[in-house]
Write a structure and sequence with these properties.
The chain has three domains: about 1-165, no CATH class; about 165-360; about 540-714, Up-down Bundle (Four Helix Bundle (Hemerythrin (Met), subunit A)), CATH 1.20.120. It has helices at about 5-10, 15-35, 45-55, 60-85, 90-105, 110-130, 140-160, 165-185, 200-230, 235-255, 260-265, 270-295, 305-320, 330-350, 360-365, 375-385, 390-410, 420-425, 430-460, 465-480, 485-500, 505-530, 540-565, 570-595, 600-625, 635-655, 660-675, 680-714. Residues about 355-365 have low confidence and may be disordered. The longest helix has about 35 residues, at about 680-714. It is mainly α. The protein starts with a helix and ends with a helix.
Length: about 725
């Protein structure tokens, strides 16, 4: 394809382009249409309605989107009309504000959809407080806020009809992009010049793995939504097949067939590790190319160079095997790694081959997380009605935050004081570190917006120019809201400037009110997360460590079952594998948040990071066993595998190394030495026992760290 047409195709299939068009159409409609008909005063509520609706949108299929629209408008209507009706009755208003905040936040227990809509409902209530004095009656402002929200959802609905699966394609494309980054990080582990124990590379690999797992979970939700709405459509089932291929590639790529430091030292003066790294880097490029093919709706073409490079690698392994320095165990490890990379290559080369799942398989591969009855609703909310629930604590905290904000506003002469509530709503998050991060960016963004906004209001005093600037700044706010929060705050501050300038307010007065309200709102949010049931992450560490050990054990048990019954990518196995990776990613995320909390013990952080590294290594060894579960092993090895699995699972469960550890470890080593070196079955036995020996090697340190962390935290 000609480069010019390829560029046009990339632009056309860009999700950012569609999002930009949607936002521009929505903001243009909320500003220029009322201006054209001579009702400029309605621009503010219509635009705020668009902003609230845009912040509460989640991707889903057409039918669910319509249900979301009805539920969103209903919650928005309750919130905005309640504010207007109770505004002049402070006691009733406070009771309504506190109770509705608690109820809306607790709706988050029902899932992401309801949590997002609940946030939007509180936001629309805050917007109603902010604009209460704009109109003389109690229905104009709520009606136009709802009309703005309806207008945005209408535009979004039209887009979803025109391009129903574009977002799903984008998330699936991101899967392979993150997989490419993970493979690049994996290639860095094959470095013959490394002398620092691969510390930096392991942390990078762990971080890439966590990002990939998060992307897998996002893609799963999007695919399941589309699968229910478009069942039987070949392109949806094809994307589902792609998703499972990505998971299979990840399992093989995350496997570890030996100690990387030992390989680095042994092949310091050889090119074998470079050849492995080159193939993995090429496979990363292939995944990136596949991601682009998915995004542009094209057919993926596998690179024929892989055949040549694999033959070169095979020759290098054979040549090493014939040297005097060759060791049988090392040769077997290299051969198994070579076969593992060949399997990844086969998955990539045949990804467009017809491999769609039957309807029964589809039903068994993914889990429906949606609510199916009122009992589910009641059970989920009841489960979170306890002080042990982070959601319950956050609901109480936010109710107090908004109550304090209202009291400050009520007893202060501050113009537009309800920005205090808006600021606290956006900044106050369930945990300390995220709130602290947003505090800084909110203040910086507000100051930046004020510095730019004041001169712009004087440079462009006409109504038409300010309407255009409202559209541009609103569009930029949505583009930056997920990536650059400080810039997003600056742009929404500019939008506020131009909006209030439309009704004749001084930019200086607006700037002073905005800055003071932002500082007060940030202080209230900081005080709340610091002293009102502070959700210090280190307190959750023992519970999460227990979950990690449980999920690792379950993954090992599922692998052992498949060696006994035969390879099957059934739901139980995929669930066990995903749970192990999810737990590891959650542990990494929690420890990352712990580093930003005050008064943290540096030794605790160092030990926690060491546990992350060891657990990632353990999952790598388990993934190696899982990657080769299609191989047959001898009954004697299978029996020993079963016994060792039970022993390892018991240790992870009890978090205690028994007296039998050293004899068992010695017996495994002796058994490996008795295994024959020829024959496929012998090679399979050797691989399984080597991985179990590697797991036993790191097990004492894992148990020691889990015990130390539990004691220090408690």
């Amino acid at each position: 394809m000609h480069p010019f047409f390829l560029t046009l195709r990339k632009v056309f299939y860009s999700s950012n382009l569609l999002f930009s068009i949607r936002i521009l159409i929505s903001l243009t409609g909320s500003t220029l249409i009322p201006w054209y008909f001579g009702y400029t005063s309605y621009v503010i509520p219509l635009t705020l309605g668009v902003v609230a609706a845009g912040l509460t949108e989640i991707d889903t299929r057409l039918f669910s989107r319509c249900i979301n629209l009805v539920f969103t408008l209903l919650c928005f209507a309750i919130a905005t009309f309640s504010v207007e009706l109770l505004f002049d009755f402070p006691v009733l208003f406070i009771l309504g504000l506190v109770s509705s905040t608690f109820i809306f936040i607790m709706l988050g227990a029902l899932g992401q959809r309801y949590g997002v809509i609940a946030f939007g409902s509180i936001l629309i209530a805050a917007y109603t407080m902010l604009g209460h004095n704009l109109y003389s009656d109690n229905y104009t402002l709520p009606c136009f806020l709802l009309l703005g929200a309806l207008w945005y959802n209408f535009v979004s609905l039209i887009e979803s009809i025109i391009q129903p699966i574009r977002t799903t394609q984008q998330t699936l494309s991101n899967c392979f992009l993150k997989l490419a980054q993970y493979l690049d990080a994996k290639a860095a582990m094959f470095d013959p010049d490394e002398t620092d124990g691969f510390t930096k590379q392991t942390l990078q690999l762990t971080d890439s793995n966590n990002q990939l797992i998060n992307t897998f979970n996002q893609t799963k939700g999007s695919l399941f939504n589309r699968l229910k709405g478009y069942r039987g459509q070949s392109y949806i089932r094809k994307m589902l097949s792609y998703y499972f291929v990505a998971q299979d590639i990840h399992e093989r790529a995350s496997s570890a067939h030996g100690d990387y430091q030992a390989l680095s030292q042994h092949f310091k003066h050889s090119d074998i590790l470079f050849r492995f790294a080159r193939i993995i880097n090429l496979q990363a490029k292939a995944c990136a190319k596949l991601a682009m093919s998915i995004k542009l709706n094209q057919t993926y073409q596998h690179d024929p160079l892989f055949t040549r490079y694999f033959s070169y690698l095979e020759e290098a392994i054979s040549q090493y095997q014939n040297t005097d320095k060759a060791t049988t165990l090392l040769v077997k490890s290299l051969q198994n790694l070579h076969q593992n990379l060949l399997s990844i290559d086969l998955l990539l080369a045949n990804i467009d081959t017809e491999q769609h799942l039957s309807q029964q398989q589809e039903n068994n591969q993914l889990i429906d997380d949606e609510l199916t009855s009122f009992y589910d609703v009641f059970a989920k909310i009841k489960r979170n009605l306890t002080i042990k629930s982070a959601l319950f604590r956050h609901a109480i905290r936010m109710s107090i935050v908004l109550f304090v904000g209202y009291i400050v506003i009520y007893f202060s002469p501050l113009t537009h004081g309800y920005w205090i509530i808006l600021t606290s709503l956006f900044v106050c998050q369930p945990n300390y570190s995220t709130t602290k991060y947003r505090l800084k960016l909110r203040v910086l963004g507000t100051i930046l917006g004020i510095m730019i906004g004041i001169p712009l209001t004087y440079l462009f005093p006409s109504v038409e120019a300010q309407l255009i600037l409202i559209i541009i700044t609103g569009w930029l706010f949505f583009l930056f809201k997920n990536s650059q929060y400080a810039y997003a705050t600056a742009f929404i501050t500019l939008l506020v400037f131009f909006s209030f300038s439309l009704i004749g307010e001084s930019s200086i007065v607006v700037a002073i009110s905005r800055l003071i309200a932002t500082l007060i709102g940030c202080f209230i949010a900081w005080f709340a997360v610091s002293f009102i049931w502070p959700d210090w992450k280190f307190r959750n560490l023992p519970k999460l460590v227990d979950r990690v050990c449980h999920d690792d054990s379950h993954y090992l048990a599922s692998i052992g079952h498949q060696y006994l019954s035969g390879k099957s990518n059934d739901l139980q196995y995929r669930l066990a594998r995903r749970a192990a990776h999810d737990s590891n990613a959650d542990l990494s995320s929690l420890i990352s948040l712990m580093t930003k909390e005050p008064h943290m013990n540096p030794a605790l952080i160092d030990q926690s990071f060491r546990l992350i590294t060891l657990n990632h290594t353990l999952i790598s060894y388990l993934s190696t066993l899982g990657s080769h579960r299609d191989k047959t092993i001898t009954p004697q090895t299978l029996e020993l595998f079963d016994d060792l699995s039970v022993y390892i699972i018991n240790i992870l469960s009890d978090k205690k190394i028994s007296a039998e550890y050293q004899p068992i470890k010695k017996s495994v080593t002796e058994y490996i030495e008795t295994l024959p070196i020829l024959g496929d079955k012998a090679n399979n036995d050797l691989l399984v026992m080597q991985q179990l020996a590697l797991i036993l090697e790191i097990l004492p340190e894992i148990i020691e760290l889990t015990s130390i962390l539990s004691i220090k935290v408690n």
